[in-house]
Design a protein that fits this description.
By secondary structure, the protein is an alpha/beta fold. It has five helices and five strands, in the order βαβαβαβαβα.
């Protein structure tokens, strides 16, 4: 079973994404900030990460950069990332240096699922 880590400080987003992932047969786990995300990636294997960008503490981009740096040996391949953000202006900044899909909030869960399937 494919496993997805969802990183978002908004519990409503975590809940709605969890519901749809479970329904689609994906295993999932959640982190509410970059710190928790680093712990989860250290403990478990994930096939994909879905991450918010604006979060208290480290933002999603910094979190992903840190995950890639810290777990370079552990991750057999570059783990695919889907960013979800309510801030369109962050996208240019992001695409300049981070590979990953970006989906704008409020997002349609079907759109999210289609994007997940492209990566898994
Ligand atoms: Mg947020």
């Amino acid at each position: 079973m494919r496993k997805i880590l969802v990183v978002d400080d908004d519990p409503l987003v975590r809940k709605s994404v969890e519901k749809v992932l479970t329904h689609e047969g994906y295993a999932s786990d959640f982190a509410k900030n970059a710190y928790e995300a680093l712990i989860k990636v250290g403990e478990q294997e994930f096939d994909l990460i879905i991450s918010d960008i604006r979060m208290p503490g480290k933002n999603g981009v910094e979190a992903v950069r840190e995950i890639r740096r810290r777990f370079k040996e552990k991750l057999a391949r570059d783990i695919p990332i889907i960013f979800i953000t309510g801030y369109a202006e962050l996208i240019d900044e992001l695409s300049a240096e981070v590979h990953g899909e970006v989906i704008l909030k409020p997002f349609d869960l079907d759109h999210l699922l289609i994007t997940i399937r492209e990566y898994l």
